[in-house]
Design brief:
- By secondary structure, this protein is of the alpha/beta class.
- The protein folds into two domains: 242 residues, Aldolase class I (TIM Barrel); 83 residues, no CATH class.
- The protein is 43% helix and 13% strand.
- It contains 15 helices and ten strands.
- The strands form two sheets. Strands 3-10-9-8-7-6-5-4 form an eight-stranded parallel β-sheet. Strands 1-2 form a two-stranded antiparallel sheet.
- Helix 1 crosses helix 10, helix 2 runs parallel beside helix 4 and helix 12 packs antiparallel against helix 13.
- The longest helix has 15 residues.
- It is globular, with a radius of gyration of 20 Å.
- The protein starts with a strand and ends with a helix.
Length: 341
């Protein structure tokens, strides 16, 4: 199994940080199914983190069940590192991940994410400072770079290892490549051969078959899953059982019930923080249905959580009535909106 510094993960499957998605409601839903070895927060701005209230911030709210939990930091200024890590120590973080791979234009413009891969000296100083400040497992996430440049990528990865990174996740696409581009899993295999620390493959894993092919082509020590997770929250359990032989029981999949469990988890957040997160989740979850775009559109146009919930119930009544009848939608509706369906 995958070892993260002194911690052995129960299964080498990691949750990818995803904006608006990898919060407490999704994480606890994943734990219902099992199979995930390391959970993650959303990407956290290191500069803003010290001002966040962990009791109400949707970025930081967590339950006691959510462990082990890695906190991903987006760093644009080396001066942000120490205050941010102090916060993570107080929050009892299980690991700290450094974001060197986010390709979003606003992140790159601010000097963070994948833009840092073009400045290895700056990255070295960031990693060195973080390593000096924490005994926690310190990980990093990268893309393959601006272009397929083997010497440059090798030098960058070896530098991360030399400066104390304990595990490296490689998203198998170039910085400018969209998600529709086939991932370059063999390039993760190159990184694996160069390094002595664990290397985790990320990108394009949506099924057990994808997981098998990725491992065959990359030889990675583990897998990190992203966009497939809000679509199929049981995917970790499936891969854990089929690929790693972990005893995980995946019950009959009741989509309306799963949607309701996620929605119930949103009540951990302030009311004004719920609707946007329900919309984000529904965008992916709707892909489970042939006409799931109607679910996504209905929720997306809603102006309140009550309206969004009713849109979802109406869709399930049309598209999945038997499973809806078996779910506890009435109870969830009352919890979420204060009203019966």
């Amino acid at each position: 199994m995958l070892k993260l510094k002194d911690t052995e993960l129960a299964v080498p499957l990691l949750l990818a940080p995803m904006a608006g998605l990898t919060h407490s409601a999704l994480r606890t839903l994943l734990l219902d199914f099992g199979g995930v070895g390391l959970l993650s927060t959303e990407m956290l701005s290191a500069g803003k983190l010290p001002n966040e209230n962990p009791h109400v911030s949707p970025y930081l709210v967590r339950t006691d069940l959510e462990s082990p939990l890695s906190y991903q930091l987006l760093i644009t200024n080396i001066q942000e590192i120490e205050p941010a890590i102090q916060v993570l120590h107080r929050l009892s973080a299980d690991a700290i991940d450094l974001n060197f791979g986010c390709p979003a234009p606003r992140v790159r413009k601010a000097g963070g994410g994948s833009s840092l891969m073009s400045d290895p000296k700056r990255v070295r100083s960031i990693v060195r400072a973080a390593r000096r400040l924490t005994p926690l497992p310190l990980t990093a996430k990268i893309r393959l770079g601006e272009s397929l440049n083997e010497p440059s990528l090798r030098s960058f990865c070896l530098m991360l290892q030399d400066e104390g990174i304990d595990l490296l996740t490689v998203h198998a696409r170039l910085r400018g490549e969209s998600f529709c581009r086939k991932p370059r899993w063999p390039w993760v295999g190159k990184v694996k051969k160069w390094l002595d620390i664990p290397v985790v493959a990320n990108g394009g894993i949506f099924s057990v078959e994808d997981a098998v092919r990725c491992l065959e082509q990359s030889g990675a020590d583990g897998l990190m899953l992203g966009r497939a997770v809000p679509q199929k929250p049981w995917i970790f359990a499936e891969i854990a059982a089929e690929v790693y032989g972990v005893s995980v029981k995946v019950d009959d999949i009741n989509l309306p019930a799963i949607y309701g469990r996620f929605a119930s988890g949103l009540t951990r957040f302030r009311p004004e923080r719920r609707l946007g997160r329900l919309k984000e989740f529904t965008h992916y979850f709707g892909l489970n249905y042939p006409f799931g775009h109607h679910l996504a559109m209905g929720v997306q146009k809603s102006r309140s959580i009550t309206e969004a919930w009713q849109q979802a119930i109406d869709f399930f009544a049309r598209s999945d009535s038997q499973k809806l009848a078996e779910s506890k939608s009435e109870k969830v509706g009352i919890i979420l909106t204060g009203k019966a369906n």
